[in-house]
C-alpha cells in the first residue's frame, strides 16, 4: 500500500486578485471567497449563482439530440395505451432510473412493466433476454436507461420484433450509434446539450422534464422525483457540478424533508438519519440498493423504491441491509485475497498497473475490490473473474489517468467493454488474460504521467483552530453538496499537539484529540486508516490535514475533524 507519509499535500492554485475582488464585491469572508475561486467561480455573478442554485437554472431538455423524437414517441405510447417496458442496469443508477420513470409514467398510464438484467447470468447492458421478455409481454416501446449506447444487437432484435427503443444513457458511445428510435446521450456526436456529465437517471429525468414542458408542467412540480435522481447521481460518482449539483441539492432537500416510504425505510435500516449528505448516499443507502443486484435480484431495489407502504417497505429495506452485510463480508474476504495476490507479484514495484484473475471471485463484488486495490496501491487496476466461460472484469483508475482510453487500446483482445475515465467494465476470453495484462501494462506505462503515480491530497487553505467556528461551517454549507469536482474542502492546521487522549482504534483507525496551543480550543475526530502514522502524534508538534463536519448527540451539536493526513514537522 502507498505509505501515507509519501502522500503529497498539494495546495489548490488560487488567484489572490480574484479572491480580493469577490471579498470586495460580495462583502464576504476571504476564506469562503478563496474556496469559490478554487471552484472556478471568479465573478460575483458566478459566485452568487453557485451559492444559490435554482431548479429554474436547469437546461432546456430539448437541447439534447433526439429529445423531440423521444417525447413524441413516448407521448404516442401513453395516449394509445401501448405497453411500455422500462429497462435499467442493476446498479443504483439503473434501478433508480427505472423507479423514477415508473413513478412518473404511472400517473399517465397503467400499461407499464420493468425489467432489470441479472448481474451474473446476463451481465451489464441492454441484452437479448430483456428484448425477449418485452416481446412476450406485448410491449411496443422500451426505454433503456443507464445502458444501451453500445448494445447494437439488442436494439436490432427489438426492432425486428416491432419494439421501438428509446435509449437514455450517459456512457461513452462506440464508433457507431445503435439504430434505436431515439438516442438520448449527451456524449454522443452531434449532441449540443451544454452539460455532458449527467448520470443515466439524470438523462432519463431530462426526458421527464421535456414531457413536463410539453404539458406546461413547471419543473418544480417534479420535485417528488428528485430524491431518486440525487441518490443515482451521487452513487454513480459523476461530477457534482452544473446540473448535477442542482439536482442533488434539491433531491437531498426532498429526501431530508419528505422521503418516499422506500427511501425512508432504507434510511432507517442502514441507520442514516437526516440531514443526509452525499456521503450518506454513497456509503449508506447506495451500497444497500446495490446489494440487491450483487447478491440477489435487483428488482427488489425497484420494488422498495416504489413501495407506498412504510411497513412493507421497512421489511424489504431490512432484507437489503442484511444482504449488504453479507456482501460486506464477501467484499472484505475478496479484497484480502486480492491484496495477497498483489503482494506475490515479483515486479510490483516496477509495474504501472495491476491485473488480477480468480475464477472463484464473485462477479457482483469485483468492482468494489478493484476500487480497494486501486486505492491501496495507487495503480490502475483490473479485477477479473470467470462467468459463462468468459473472463469478466471491473477496472478502476487513479486520479488523472484515462482508464477508458487505455482499455480502448486493448479492444482487439476484448469481447466487449464500456465505461468512462475512472471506471470501466470488460469481457474477454479466459485464454487472453495474459496477453491483456501485458498489453494493458504497456499502454498504462506509456500513457500515465509521473504525477499520477503518487497519491495527492488537495488542500484548500491553511487555517488555525481559532478559525474553526460555526460561522465557518455555515459558509461551507453554501458550497454543498460536495462530491467529485466539488470536493469537501481540506484544510491544514500546523503545529498541533496531542491532549493525551488520542488513541489507536480497530481497523487501522485512530481517534485524535488535539489543540494548537496550550490554552486553545480542543478539537477531536477520527483519522481513518491512519493508525500507521500514530507514532508521530506522540512525538510533539505535527501538522494535520482535515475536513470539518458537524455531529449531534442528545440535541447537542459539535464540530469534529475528519483527519486526512498527519505530517511530522
pLDDT < 50 runs, ≥5 residues: none
The counted number of beta strands is: 19
Rough shape? globular
Q: How can the largest sheet be summarized?
A: 5 strands, parallel
Task: Give the strand line-up of the largest sheet.
Answer: 3-2-4-5-6
Secondary-structure arrangement, i.e. CATH architecture of the largest domain: Alpha-Beta Complex
Determine the mean pLDDT.
94
Measured distance between first and last alpha carbons: 23 Å
Q: Beta-sheet strand percentage?
A: 15-25%
How much helical structure, as a percent, in the residues? 25-40%
CATH topology of the largest domain: inorganic pyrophosphatase (n-terminal core)
Structural class: alpha/beta
Overall description:
With 569 residues, the chain is of the alpha/beta class. The protein folds into 3 domains: 4-52 and 456-568, OB fold (Dihydrolipoamide Acetyltransferase, E2P) (Beta Barrel); 57-258, inorganic pyrophosphatase (n-terminal core), CATH 3.90.1640; 345-453, Diaminopimelate Epimerase, Chain A, domain 1. Helix content is 39%, strand content 19%. It has 18 helices and 19 strands. It has helices spanning 16-26, 30-38, 44-51, 67-79, 92-105, 128-136, 152-160, 200-214, 226-235, 242-257, 261-269, 278-294, 299-306, 310-343, 366-377, 403-408, 433-447, 470-477, and strands at residues 8-11, 84-88, 112-115, 141-145, 164-168, 182-184, 354-357, 381-387, 390-396, 416-419, 423-429, 456-459, 461-462, 491-498, 503-504, 510-515, 522-527, 542-553, 556-568. It has a 5-stranded parallel β-sheet, sandwiched between helices. A 5-stranded mixed β-sheet has the order 7-8-9-11-10, with helices on both faces. The chain has a 5-stranded mixed beta barrel with strand order 14-16-17-19-18. Helix 5 (92-105) packs parallel to helix 8 (200-214), helix 5 (92-105) crosses helix 13 and helix 11 (261-269) crosses helix 13 (299-306). The longest helix has 34 residues, at 310-343. The chain starts with 7 loop residues before the first strand and ends with a strand.
Amino acid at each position: 500500500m502507498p505509505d501515507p507519509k509519501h502522500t503529497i499535500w498539494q495546495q489548490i492554485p488560487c488567484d489572490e486578485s480574484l479572491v480580493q475582488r469577490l471579498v470586495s464585491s460580495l462583502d464576504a469572508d476571504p476564506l469562503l471567497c478563496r474556496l469559490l475561486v478554487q471552484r472556478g467561480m471568479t465573478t460575483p455573478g458566478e459566485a452568487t449563482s453557485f451559492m444559490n442554485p435554482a431548479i429554474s437554472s436547469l437546461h432546456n431538455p430539448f437541447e439534447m439530440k433526439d429529445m423531440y423524437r423521444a417525447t413524441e414517441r413516448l407521448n404516442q405510447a401513453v395516449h394509445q395505451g401501448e405497453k411500455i417496458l422500462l429497462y435499467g442496469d442493476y446498479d443504483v443508477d439503473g434501478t433508480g432510473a427505472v423507479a423514477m420513470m415508473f413513478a412518473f409514467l404511472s400517473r399517465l398510464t397503467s400499461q407499464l412493466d420493468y425489467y432489470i438484467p441479472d448481474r451474473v447470468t446476463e451481465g451489464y447492458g441492454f441484452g437479448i433476454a430483456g428484448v425477449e421478455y418485452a416481446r412476450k409481454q406485448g410491449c411496443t416501446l422500451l426505454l433503456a436507461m443507464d445502458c444501451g449506447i453500445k448494445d447494437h444487437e439488442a436494439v436490432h432484435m427489438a426492432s425486428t420484433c416491432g419494439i421501438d427503443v428509446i435509449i437514455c444513457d450517459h456512457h461513452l458511445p462506440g464508433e457507431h450509434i445503435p439504430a434505436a428510435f431515439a438516442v438520448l446521450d449527451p456524449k454522443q456526436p452531434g449532441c449540443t446539450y451544454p452539460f455532458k456529465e449527467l448520470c443515466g437517471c439524470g438523462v432519463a429525468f431530462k426526458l421527464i422534464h421535456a414531457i413536463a414542458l410539453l404539458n406546461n408542467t413547471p419543473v418544480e412540480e417534479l420535485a417528488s422525483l428528485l430524491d431518486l435522481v440525487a441518490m443515482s447521481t451521487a452513487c454513480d460518482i459523476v461530477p457534482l457540478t452544473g446540473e448535477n449539483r442542482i439536482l442533488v441539492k434539491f433531491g437531498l432537500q426532498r429526501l431530508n424533508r419528505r422521503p418516499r416510504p422506500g427511501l425512508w425505510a432504507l434510511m432507517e435500516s442502514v441507520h442514516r438519519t437526516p440531514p443526509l449528505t452525499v456521503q450518506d448516499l454513497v456509503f449508506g443507502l447506495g451500497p444497500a440498493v446495490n446489494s440487491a443486484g450483487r447478491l440477489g435480484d435487483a428488482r427488489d431495489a425497484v420494488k422498495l423504491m416504489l413501495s407506498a407502504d412504510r411497513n412493507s417497505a421497512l421489511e424489504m429495506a431490512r432484507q437489503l441491509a442484511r444482504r449488504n452485510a453479507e456482501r460486506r463480508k464477501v467484499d472484505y474476504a475478496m479484497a484480502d485475497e486480492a491484496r495477497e495476490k498483489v503482494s506475490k507479484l515479483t515486479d510490483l514495484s516496477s509495474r504501472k498497473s495491476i491485473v488480477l484473475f480468480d475464477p472463484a471471485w464473485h462477479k457482483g463484488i469485483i468492482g468494489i475490490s478493484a476500487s480497494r486495490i486501486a486505492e491501496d496501491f495507487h495503480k490502475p487496476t483490473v479485477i477479473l473473474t470467470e462467468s459463462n466461460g468468459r473472463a469478466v472484469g471491473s477496472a478502476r483508475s487513479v486520479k488523472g489517468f484515462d482508464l477508458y482510453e487505455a482499455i480502448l487500446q486493448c479492444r482487439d483482445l476484448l469481447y466487449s467493454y464500456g465505461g468512462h475515465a475512472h471506471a470501466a467494465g470488460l469481457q474477454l476470453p479466459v485464454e487472453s488474460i495474459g496477453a491483456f495484462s501485458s498489453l494493458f501494462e504497456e499502454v498504462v506505462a506509456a500513457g500515465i504521467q509521473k504525477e499520477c503515480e503518487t497519491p495527492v491530497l488537495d488542500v484548500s487553505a491553511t487555517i488555525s483552530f481559532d478559525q474553526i467556528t460555526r460561522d465557518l461551517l455555515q459558509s461551507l454549507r453554501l458550497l454543498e453538496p460536495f462530491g467529485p469536482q466539488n470536493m469537501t474542502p481540506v484544510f491544514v492546521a500546523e503545529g498541533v499537539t496531542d491532549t493525551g487522549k488520542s488513541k489507536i482504534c480497530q481497523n487501522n483507525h485512530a481517534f485524535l484529540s488535539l489543540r494548537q496551543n496550550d490554552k486553545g480550543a480542543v478539537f477531536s475526530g477520527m483519522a481513518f486508516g491512519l493508525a500507521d502514522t500514530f507514532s508521530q502524534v506522540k512525538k510533539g508538534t505535527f501538522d494535520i490535514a482535515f475536513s470539518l463536519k458537524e455531529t449531534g448527540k442528545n440535541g447537542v451539536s459539535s464540530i469534529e475533524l475528519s483527519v486526512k493526513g498527519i505530517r511530522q514537522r
